[in-house]
Every structure is written in structure tokens, then in C-alpha cells.
Amino acid sequence: MHTNRLAQEKSPYLQQHAHNPVDWYPWGEAAFEKARLENKPIFLSIGYSTCHWCHVMERESFENEEIAALMNRDYVAIKVDREERPDVDRIYMTFVQATAGSGGWPMSVWLTPELEPFFGGTYFPPESRWGQPGFGSILTQIAQAWASDREKIEESARNLVEQLRKQVEVAPTRGGAAFDAATLESAFSIFRRTFDSRLGGFGGSPKFPRVSVHHFLLRYYARTKNQEALDMVLLTLREMAHGGMNDQLGGGFHRYSVDDRWFVPHFEKMLYDQAQIAISYLEAFQATGDRQYADTARAIFDYVLRDMTDAGGGFYSAEDADSAISPEHPELKGEGAFYIWSFEEIHALLSQPAAGWFCYRYGVREGSNVASDPHGEFPGKNILYQAHTVEETARHFSRPPEEVQTALDRACGLLLAARAKRVRPHLDDKILTAWNGLMISAFAKGGAVLDDARYAEAARRAAEFVIGHLYDADSGALLRRYRERDAAIPGFLDDYSMFVQGLLDLYEAQFDRRHLELAARLTEKQKELFEDAKSGAFFSSAANDHRLVLRVKDDYDGAEPSGNSVAVMNLVRLARMTNRALFRESAERTLAAFASRLALTPVAIPQMLTACEFLLGDPREIILTGPRDSVEMRALLRELHTRFVPSRVVLLVDSPETRQALAAGIPSIASMNPLEGRASAYVCRNYTCQLPVCEPAKFAELIQY
User: Which of 54, 210, 322, 677 has the fewest Cβ atoms surrounding its Cβ within 10 A?
Assistant: First the structure.
């Protein structure tokens, strides 16, 4: 068996390639020096461990002895886990998108020894097919071109990098306010035009849960009372929950739907999706009081606690789309094999009439319920989805809904237990600071909104895990990744901004002042490492890595929100919570740097629009005074957490020490005391406060929009 340098790495993705015949190097100076000394181009392959097409390209090309021989002879081959090194991925994805018109993973890029790209794409088949050139042929042609026209290629690469540097530049280009109400109206109008009014979501297939759009629309609704904005989100969330993209048995959402009705998913499950989608359902529940949204959020949380949580409290990164077709042949894998069912399997596991009820409810048919299966992945198999409601099922079989619901609950439990005996999909068990920050936000809000101590404790434990394993108190810096007792890779903007967001949400749910104070310190460190103090906004990576040919200010809110979008929202919240000018001024500089983006393409940055909505939404400071665990305080918090009130910050004064600490930034807090010894709430705007209230109903009146 072949073994290469990747066997020494901690990344599950790199370890998957440790026994390829390719002489892989991890990203680092050893590979760069070899390329320079031997004057060879670099072949850079970027992917992640739960990526379906990454697996395909590995089987077809990287395990192919002949192709590996070409790579080893003519190139220095480098493998990068995009989840460990988003900075490297972001640079070369920018290049591939600019030159090839689109990007994705696996990403294949050819570089000069100076790390400047000159050719790239995504997946390449081993031989020419589907209108794509074969990987072996490309390797040969590029090697020949390098041998004959190296200087021309290097000059072209330098020019390309210079063009990219200009393309990614972000700086103020206009005077006046960075945004106004018209900016947000423009974004709403674009989302309205692209909305699928029949099936929810935006645009056609494939459909991705771009949750930052939901976050913007819900805040736009809260400010404007435009019911259409709320309805777009609610329809999308209902249809997502009904479809096969939602794991109907085990909870949690798959990555995206290949069709337009959320039915046939790409089966990988990502932590960042669970976190963001759960928050959307929580906020929909707050806005409507409809329990169906709370139930879907609970299913997500229960899945993460069951299958994605480390014993120490951190959250794992992802589960694969591919899984073994049978325990007897674990090497034979198929997309979604862990999740799909034959008609016969269900009838063997369930007795009648429950089997018939289950199949009607979840759309199971004899044969397959997947009508369009171009790659032949689902012959004789069914993807579970909510074809009918429980009430419709009960009417169809002329049985009481309560009886049908009880039988369906039992059937789901039996099938889930049977599914647990299958070979599970590969688990990427690395723990990433950024994604844990997103999940901490979700669990903190879930614990508060759903009044569930399990979720609150999960948020607290995960925060303490990151603080204990990925934070260096001496330097004040974060690390990116933890796996197998190894913490490594200096944190990026995403790690700082998303973990700070998690700490702020955790503070506002549980009021441990340590979390607020750490959020402020980490934001100061973030400014030190990443901020462009002259032109505004934040670079994604620190200035001290000379191996990066570009420093990018990421500004696209896609599957994950951009570090800049999360950072600016943190800054406006911290400015209100601490009354410190450095946070307010940093937020203003960041928004000014993105003023042109906000004006011309606001739909590219919906998460940043939420910060704009916060600032336009007449934000309040809510200061609670009194013991945090008193009956009266819990009653006030229930009123706060059951309502969707996005433009606010919340502080708790429950001791003389806390009063002194908070009053250092907001002097008026020094005189805020419980009214007649009872837990009280002060509702303020720009630190001008109304009279305190103790009664939950009066408090609710003050915070209602």
C-alpha cells in the first residue's frame, strides 16, 4: 500500500488521500521549496472530506497509477482541506470563478512555484467525457507548455494575480451614508422577484438553504410590517421541512436539493447548515407562535446532540453524502444509501396498518418514488418526505388522527433504530472554531426560545470547549481547528467573528458576563489582526502569511455568512452593549467600505443587510436588574424570548460587581435598581430610558414593534 505525507496530517480529508500513489504534500514550505528547486509547477487540489465529487475524482484519478505517475513526474502535488484553510480556498476559488466562470469542489488549480495560478477548474474526469477534457490529457498538455513556454506562463500568472488584486479590492468609493431605507427596499424587491411562490426558495433548481436571506427578510418584516417578507420565509421553511432535504427520521438538513421542490437532496450534512437553519425556524416560531417551526428546530438540535457532538462539548463538522450500500460490502458506496428505503424493507419492519399509514404519510411507493434519476442512484429506493399531513393520512384511512400519530411516531422510532444498524456515513470529526460559533448561537437561542435546559447547556459546554482548547489567553488569539487532542492553524476572520457572535448570543441568553467580556477582547484582537484601518472592513486572513498571493476581504453571504457581515453585526451590538467608540467607528468604516456593494448588489450580502436593519430599526437597550434565577426575572425573560425583537441588545445587572463593570461603559446603569426589590426591566433608546417595569405584560408592551 502507498503511503504519502498526508498520513501525518490531522485533517480527515487529507487522511483520506494518505494512501494514494500521488506524492501529495500538505500546504506548506516543504512543497513550495521543492517546486522552486526543481522548477516544477504546482498542482493544487482543494476539497473536503464529505464532498461527493472529491471522492469520485480520487477513485478515478488520484488512485490511478498511470495518472499518479504523471503527477509525480511533472508536478509538485499539494492537497488542501478547504475547511481547515478557507484562506487558501478563497484565493484560488476567486481565480477559478474569474477564469472558468464557475467554481466548486474538488477544485483543481495549477500554480507557478511562486503560488500564482495560471489554469484551473473543478472536477475533471480521467478521460475526456461529458464535454470535459480528461485529467490525464490536461496534465500532459500543461507539462509540455511549462517546458516550452515557462516564462510566458509565469508572466501571465503575475498579470492574472494583479488583475485579481484589483478585482477583490474593497474600499470606500462614494460619499454620504453607506446605506438607507432605499437600499433595503431594493434588496427586498430583488428577492421578491426571484421568489418561488409555489415551492418556496429563491430561483430554480438546485435549491440551497441560503439562510442569511431569511434572516434579512424577517428583520425587514419586523421593521416595515410588510407581511409578504414574512410569508416568503414561512413558505420556504414549511416546504423545506416537508421535503427529502429534511431528514424525516433523524432530524437535521442535508446540504441542498437537486430539484426545485426540496425533494431529492445532496445528502451531506454540514454543521453550519444545522446552525443557521435552526435559527431560521426559531425566529419563525417567535414571529408566528406556530409550533411546527419550533418542532423542526428541536429535531435539528436533537440530531446535533445525538450525532455531531464531541464528548468534550464541541461540535463536529459534517457527515458525508456517500455511505456503504450494505454492511457486507462497506467499500461499495452510494449517495444517500444510509437514508433511503425500499418498499419491502419498510413492510418487513412495520406491521399493518402502520406500514400502510407510514408509506402514505412519507410518500413511499413500490419500486422508487424518485421519478428523475439520471445517475441511477435510487433504483428500488425511496426518499422519505412529507407527502401528506397526519390529518390527511387519518382521513384517507378513516382513523382518528391521535391513533395515526401514535402509530407513526412508533414507526419512525422503529425505522430510526433499524437505520442505526446500517454503516453510518463518514463523520468529519474535526472541530472548527467558526462553525462552533454558529452552533453556539443556535443552541443558546434554542435554549432560551424553547425553554430547554439541554440546549442551553449544549451552548455553554461548546463555548467552554472552544475557550479551553482553541483560545490562548496569553496572546488573546484563537486557533482554527481541533482534532485528536491537537489544536492548530491560527484563526481567520471567520473564526473570530462567528465565535464572537456565539458569545454575544450566549451572553444574551444566559448572562455570564465572562462571555460578553471575552467577546469584546476577541473583537479587539480581530481588529488588530484583520482590519484595514485605512480603507475599512476586514481581510479574511492576517497580514503575516507571506505565502498568500492575495489578501481578500470576503463579502459574499452564501452557504456560510461572510466574516465581514458577521463582524459588522457584532460591532454594532458591542457598540450598544459597551458604549465604546472604537466598535462603533469600526462598524461605520466597514459599512462605508461596502457602500458600493450595498448600493449595487445588496442581495450578495443579505447578512450584512441585517446589520443595516438593526441600525434602521430603532434599536433598544434592554437592561434587566435583579437576581437572574428569580421567578420574576424568569417571567420577564419569557416575554422577551417568545417575541421576535431583533433590533435590541440585552444586559443583566444582578450584582454590585456587574453593575460596576457595565456602568464603566454606560454610566446610567449605576442608578438602575430593581423596583421595590423586584426584578425590573429598563427599556432604553440611545441610553434614554423609560420608567422601569416589573410586570411581564407591561414589559411586553414596551418591546413590541
Answer: 677
